[in-house]
Amino acid sequence: MTVESTAARTPRRAAGSGAKRASASAKKSASAKTAQAAKTGQAAKETAKGAAASGEPQLVQLLTPEGERVSNPEYDKYVADITPDDLRVLYRDMVLTRRFDAEAVTLQRQGELGLWPSLLGQEAAQVGSGRATRDDDYVFPTYREHGVAWCKGVDPTLLLGMFRGVNNGGWDPNSNGFQLYTIVIGSQALHATGYAMGVAKDGADSAVIAYFGDGASSQGDVAEAFTFAAVYNAPVVFFCQNNQWAISEPTEKQSRVPLYQRAQGYGFPGVRVDGNDVLASLAVTKWALERARAGEGPSLVEAFTYRMGAHTTSDDPTRYRREEEREAWKAKDPIARLKAHLEAEGHADEGFFAELDAEAEALGKRVREVVRQMPDPEPMSIFENIYADGHALVDEERAQFAAYQASFVDAPVSASTGGEVK
Predict the structure, then answer these.
(1) pLDDT above 70 covers what percent of the chain?
(2) Is residue 387 flagged as an active site residue?
(3) Catalytic residue among 131, 262, 307, 341
(4) Does the reported pTM lie above 0.85?
(5) Angle, CA of 298, 301 and 305, to the nearest 5°
(6) Which one of 320, 322, 387, 391 is the catalytic residue?
(7) In the predicted model, is pLDDT for residue 414 greater than 70?
(8) pLDDT at position 47, please?
(9) Per-residue pLDDT, 310
């Protein structure tokens, strides 16, 4: 950062009539300049210090877009034990996640899914943070955390089943520490905070992580979650994937400061990480989770990344953003970045990449076949598993829907069960 001098110039004096006066004036001028230079240098240091403390965004990066490993004294230790095998695992995670995500987009275009929110471009943020969690850590996702779901052991077909309308989630959150997808924007931040407060009261040695986007950061639920987490010192990590666009609204129209700096106002630390750098995402999330487990309270991680595709398959991003912007971010692709690093360091050969490509295609084929073979659910099953003991409003809605269904068939239908009257 260039700091311009704001020192005032020394005013000129009128020319004297003698050598003595000229000499004294010169000495005085030189002395004034020396003092002013020292003063200016100190002012520059203070200005730079102040900018670093509160103004300029600080981005944690361990892999450059070209795949070069760079050092970070504060976060290197969190990936010091990463082996070439670990790097290949991270690469595999991202490739396979991108493959089934692409298959899901295609299936939706073919009418096999009702909707699909693609994660294209955000693989590093999700895989890096997902692999940072332990088995006993609990994840509260939004509806786009397909890479985190993969890392937590959720089969991709279960995710697609929800968007096909054959289940309301399809997996048991308690079996893998991954909650059901949340469609209501920002509400999962409160759920995660409450769960983390319970973890603290139980004295458990685990942490909670809540995912949300830059758009959700404008929701009141997220602000309330920050407040409760800070006051109760909850062991929760707020992981914001800033993909630059909340549907059609850019980040600069949502916040006047970088999102990670919001944490300061609530009394806990915030960090901005290069969300296209899987190593940095892993390291920063490890740091945040470890401090949560140690009883040091919440933290906010802003993964600075980019949504390469549409918000969902019902969106048309060409209506609100320029192709030049997308191309600029394409050069920072998270998968290409790690591949360049693996090749440069000799950690992977053509055989590895070819084998992985074959595995990715096999995964795409399996996802496609499983989705197309999913049976259509019974229409009335949508009312099941809502409340454990039933609910009057749900009963009323069930009866109304049953009557609506009955209008399309000749046989009478029971309003209480939705089945034909025998």
Answers:
(1) 84
(2) no
(3) 307
(4) no
(5) 165
(6) 320
(7) no
(8) 34
(9) 96
